[in-house]
């Protein structure tokens, strides 16, 4: 009898032992087992908070992301299989984006601080209340998308670093009494993200190149006009929030589809540059649609079998976007080296040395080789007015104007380009 009692007792002990070792750790639990789990998550690169022995929202998110990355069932709970996998992953690299710092469910002053940055960045539409809820989760996701950070909805180390940099920029702008977050002349990844949004909503026709130039400024003005904001062409906090509001899709049917005599602005300057590129003379590309520009449009329409109105409608604009061709008339031809420059190169004012809108259709030359004001046709490029100079433009070299940094890279450096002086 005693023998059987001992067997039963042994079986009960083994059963308890198995249950203890196979216990699933989950949110709300505390103790040494949670400490061990958190230390393992830190070592595996999934947690970047102080180990506090409490299975809270951050630990749950770290476990969920680990399970997702390793192809395990995503529960946010650390069962035996998950615990073994986390232990095995210790000191073997870090999660893409780094360890989790804050997650949905967290509360406090730190959460409130980053909510404010998200709000001022135009990502958070909800309250700045220190509660990491659904609205904050969505705002973090949007911020991550805008900054090419792995999207998780949790503030990981990479996201925190980006938020810190954004806060520094906002604080500096306030210190300098500058209300703008971004303005003409700014460059970088943030500008690319802004341009992507502007293009997605139909405001921007130009390239996404990370340069806040004339095209981007014009697009921002269109957004501000539609949204009833002060029209500055620069991005303040209000404009940023409107930019990230998907209701702001540009309705082109409500806006002018043509450019005509008396109009002025960057749209006209771009039209004039395109006319020059195709070999038509609109006068100085000053952004004003006067008689010379009207005459150039009429001639272009005539040569392309279009109705001759002198108005640059959508048909004219579309044809001007096609590659220019050489008409065959010239005085002499020169073999030259060639580079390219954008409107923001040099002093960055967007104008040539003769006061025209810089970009395609303009070129910088050495006046001793090609006199300023000359019109040329550049092989592989098109027509240009030589109305600019540069400190490094000496001898047989021509610096062609382009509209974006990407176009400048595409043109690159050319050892031998045939230039026809018209």
UniProtKB/TrEMBL annotation:
GO CC, any one term: outer membrane
InterPro entries for the chain: 3D_dom, Peptidoglycan-bd-like, PGBD-like_sf, PGBDSf, Resuscitation_pf_RpfB, RlpA-like_sf
Record keywords: Signal
Coiled-coil region: none
Gene Ontology molecular function, alphabetical: hydrolase activity, hydrolyzing O-glycosyl compounds
Residue ranges of the TM segments: none
Residue span, Peptidoglycan binding-like domain: 31-86, 110-163, 188-242, 264-320
Superkingdom, taxonomy of origin: Bacteria
Domain 3D: from-to ranges: 364-422
GO biological process, one term: peptidoglycan turnover
Cited Gene3D superfamilies: PGBD-like superfamily/PGBD, RlpA-like domain
Record's protein name: Cell wall lytic enzyme
Organism classification: Bacteria, Bacillati, Bacillota, Negativicutes, Veillonellales
């Amino acid at each position: 009898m005693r023998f059987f009692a001992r067997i039963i007792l042994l079986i009960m002990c083994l059963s308890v032992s198995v249950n203890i070792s196979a216990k699933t750790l989950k949110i709300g639990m505390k103790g040494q087992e949670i400490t061990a789990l958190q230390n393992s998550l830190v070592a595996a690169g999934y947690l970047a908070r102080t180990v506090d022995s409490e299975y809270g929202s951050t630990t749950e998110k770290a476990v969920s992301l680990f399970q997702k990355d390793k192809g395990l069932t995503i529960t946010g709970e650390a069962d035996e299989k998950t615990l073994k996998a986390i232990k095995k992953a210790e000191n073997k690299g870090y999660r893409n984006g780094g360890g989790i710092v804050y997650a949905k469910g967290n509360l406090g002053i730190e959460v409130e601080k980053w909510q404010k940055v998200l709000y001022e960045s135009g990502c958070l539409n909800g309250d700045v209340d220190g509660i990491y809820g659904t609205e904050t989760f969505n705002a973090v996701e949007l911020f991550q998308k805008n900054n090419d950070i792995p999207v998780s909805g949790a503030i990981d180390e990479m996201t925190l670093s980006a938020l810190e940099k954004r806060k520094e920029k906002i604080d500096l702008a306030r210190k300098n009494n500058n209300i703008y977050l971004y303005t003409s002349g700014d460059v970088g990844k943030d500008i690319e993200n802004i341009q992507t949004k502007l293009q997605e909503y139909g405001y921007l026709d130009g390239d996404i190149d990370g340069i806040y130039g004339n095209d981007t400024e014009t697009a921002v003005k269109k957004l501000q006009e539609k949204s009833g904001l002060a029209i500055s062409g620069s991005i303040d906090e209000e404009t940023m929030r409107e930019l990230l509001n998907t209701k702001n899709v540009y309705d082109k049917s409500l806006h002018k589809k043509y450019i005509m005599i008396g109009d002025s602005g960057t749209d006209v300057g771009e039209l004039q540059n395109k006319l020059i590129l195709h070999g038509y003379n609109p006068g100085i590309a000053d952004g004003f649609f006067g008689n010379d520009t009207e005459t150039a449009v009429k001639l272009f329409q005539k040569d392309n079998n279009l109705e001759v109105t002198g108005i640059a409608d959508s048909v004219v604009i579309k044809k001007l976007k096609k590659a220019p061709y050489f008409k065959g008339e010239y005085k002499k031809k020169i073999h030259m080296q060639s580079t390219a420059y954008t409107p923001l190169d040099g002093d960055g004012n967007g104008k040539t040395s003769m006061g025209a809108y810089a970009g395609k259709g303009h070129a910088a030359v050495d006046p001793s080789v090609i006199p300023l004001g000359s019109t040329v046709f550049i092989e592989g490029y098109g027509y240009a007015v030589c109305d600019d100079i540069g400190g490094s433009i000496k001898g047989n070299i021509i610096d062609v104007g382009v509209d974006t940094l990407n176009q400048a890279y595409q043109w690159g450096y050319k050892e031998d380009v045939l230039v026809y002086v018209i």
